[in-house]
Amino acid sequence: MEIKDPRNHFSKENGALSGEKTSKTIRKLKDMKGFYEDEEAFNKMDPETVLYEVEMHAPVKAGTEGGLFFGTSFLNPGKVGEEFFMTKGHFHEIINRAEYYWGLEGEGVLVFMDEDGNASAEKVCPGSLHFVPGKIAHRLVNTGDTKLAVGACWPADAGHQYGPIAESGFGVRIKEKNGTIIAE
Ligand SMILES: [Fe+2]
């Protein structure tokens, strides 16, 4: 029997993916209208500004029960007004599906929110590991001066629900005020 080479690789430094069945999604400022508090600051910025990119390995079709997806999110450093660049954040479409996140590069915050709107947050750093239980919305925020890279693994049938977040947010925003990182 032949022992084959691996079909995929990820960078040990930042989690960048290579090999088969990988894809990349790019989120720009213009994709996140209404997500940031300071609309005046938002409107002054270049709508083509890249906020984050998600690389993903999808060995099965989306929606496959029992399947897994693997990905790495890369958030650029920056702010809209006082608020740090962040991902849209989501509940899973099948809401009880859980997920793992792990910090690879840079400094950030992972924000959680339950279905009643109660928020909490954890620091993300290289080597940090985060379990996101089912029924909990999750969002990454880059609070550093460099790129934030975070790995993730989630069920292939989890799906994403952005609607509730777009409408009412996370109930908490991660900002810099007087040189301090705060959640308010
Ligand atoms: Fe998720």
Automatic annotation (TrEMBL):
Q: Name one Pfam family in it.
A: GPI
Q: Could you say which protein family the record assigns here?
A: Belongs to the archaeal-type GPI family.
Which reaction is the catalytic activity of this chain? alpha-D-glucose 6-phosphate = beta-D-fructose 6-phosphate
Keyword Thylakoid in record: no
Q: Where is this region: Disordered?
A: 1-23
Query: Which EC main class describes this enzyme?
Result: isomerase
Would you tell me the protein name for this molecule? glucose-6-phosphate isomerase
Domain Glucose-6-phosphate isomerase prokaryote stretches: 27-175
Under Enzyme Commission nomenclature, its number is: 5.3.1.9
A GO MF label: glucose-6-phosphate isomerase activity
Renumbered to this chain, the Basic and acidic residues biased-composition regions fall at 1-12
Q: In which pathway does it act?
A: Carbohydrate degradation; glycolysis; D-glyceraldehyde 3-phosphate and glycerone phosphate from D-glucose: step 2/4
Q: Does the keyword Membrane apply?
A: no
Q: Where is it found, in Gene Ontology cellular component terms?
A: cytoplasm
One of the GO BP terms on file: gluconeogenesis
Name the UniProt key words of this record, in alphabetical order. Answer: Gluconeogenesis, Glycolysis, Isomerase
